[in-house]
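User: Can you fold this complex?
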Amino acid sequence: MTPTISKPNGRKIQLMATCLCDAFFDNVAKATVEVLEHAGCEVEFPENQTCCGQPAFNCGDWTASRQVMRHTANVFKGDKPVIVPSGSCAAMLFHGAPLEFEKESDLGTINDLAGRTWEIADYLVNGLGIQKWPGRFQARIAFHRACHTRGTPSGAAAMQLLESIEGIEVIPFGEAEQCCGFGGTFSVSFPHVSSSMGCLKLEHITAVDPDFVVSGDMSCMMHLGGLAEREGKPIKTLHFVQILQAALQNHA
Amino acid sequence: MPEQKVDSYARRLDRPVQQAVHDNSAAGTEKRYGSLAKDFTDADSLRRLAGAIRQHSIENLDIYLEQAEASLNRNGAHVHYAVTADDACRAVSDILKKAGAKKIVKSKSMISEEIHLNDHLATQGIESVETDLGEYIIQIDGDHPSHIVKPIIHKNRRDIARSFEREGLGDYNDDPQTITRRARDFMRGKYLGADAGITGANFVVADTGRLVLVTNEGNSRFCLAAPRIHIALVGIEKVIPSDSELTVLLNLLGRSATGQQLTVYTEFINGPARKDRPSGPEEMHVIFVDNQRSEILASNCREILRCIRCGACLNVCPIYRQASGHAYRSVYPGPIGAVLSPLLAGKNFKQLADLPKASSLCGACNEVCPVDIPIPDLLLRLRNKAHEEHLPSPGTPPMAGFGILASSPSIWKIAMKTGGLSSLVPLEKLPLPYLSPWLKTRTLPGWRGGQFRSWMKSRNKK
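Assistant: Here's the predicted assembly.
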């Protein structure tokens, strides 16, 4: 994965809310806006945004994926930083897209977008230089590092902010480096392996009995939350920006 | 709906076997991490350096291979080239026949598995005994390795004790020390009676012609102690420029494979016996095997040829841990196999084109790879290749419609709003075949399509 170096880090930003937040997790998108605004950002939400194209990319249909990515690049044109509350969708923009456009004539446009795209924790800590998050949130949390942030500063950045909040205790759990089993369409084309991976992850997480399971990617949370609910042992999941938002509400 | 083969294999796999594979792999991952962290403050940069060394080696293979041939000849070894697996098998049996060799002992070599050497030798009336304990057990069981480094990761000591009893190696006894001692007693006779020893090579150094072999059992040394002839089967990509690169690669190989600083035995073989170097076989042959490697080198997946066969990607892979090695239906399982096996299949790519799909693309394999192979990128390229070749992929939703939907914002916005209608009927009743595998084990959150958009709009109006 591409490390974030010398990306534009201004405070006038474009928000890519992601299709999952568009369809299911409006609260996460709202929290993202409020967190960014607290950090002094002017948030623009380009109305014509849809999806990063990753489902088609992962299925091998790069023609369909490039069609979506061209649309996305057009929607997010300009020179503002593009902030994404998902390590996976961000990685699609800055890593996946340049791969699928390797031999395309508009690779330059795609590289331009890649060079402006930030996963939100990385942007807050390494873009804006925020080292501590104000407020208080009383909870023991298990933080699941989303796989598509491997090799990027995002996981460490999210942990740094979470641990800086008064009242938060981040508790370690077993086999933390392992995937939750989601993997996009993998979860439906390999239902047995995918579910087994998720159940193993849940076993490790529930063994330490956290108040919340937290991640920077709602796809992982949707998978683990859905598995736990189907098993009749629901867990409380949150995106880490929701904790930042909640901490602000408890800010004196 | 038709199933993905790896998924259905994993579903049918015996629980104790799955548990053994999982536990053993997870332990391997822990050991690897510990041994690297103990000795290197920045293991990641070492990994990248090793990746650059291997990439340089394969991109200049035309130069280094010629250089290796010249060096090997200078050292007194005979060099052969084999384009296909059949060529490689024939090269071995031709050498053996010419020398009148009937009995051989073999140390562990993935390329010999790849070309199915033992099957070929059997048809030629040549006895070939695997001397690595794991490989020997595989051989007497008529089984296949399920891990690159730990071939019998799927077996337990009770299975092995039964096999030994069946082979007449003593009464049933599942004590590991007893099993090992019996194997050793049996092997000693085989080493002494063998006409030739066959090995692989972990590296071939171009400028010195040195063959480097790493093992933990010392069996490869025995294979070269008594027999007159040494045949080394080597993939053409194993060549590296000089000895100095070994300092990086050997430091990473043992740690990545088994969490050892170095394997117990590291052998440097500088050619056959001669006056000033009296020990070892009189005759040495090195067979460089291509078997599709040139094609891979010419493809957009050439980085896979950096691989030094440590197995770290298998150990860390959650799919391997659930499905075990045999699910991959090929010599190389796990993430490395999901890339390499379909490529080695060449014209039969189609038969293994499902393997690159058997990944959640979590990237753990790349993170542990000692030569920094971008395995997820290569899996994606192979998925794209399979799609371009119109190969079927069970359970994978077609994406053309998604492409249109997600590039047409007005339709997208309507779909977001009307998706809420799904809450009026039970999801299970919807005619969405790709939803049912999800819903079988997972619930979906309630549909809230368009809510964020409305919220954002109402804020902007204020």
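The CA atoms of residues 89 and 120 of chain B lie 7 Å apart. Chain B touches chain A through 72 residues (CB under 8 Å).
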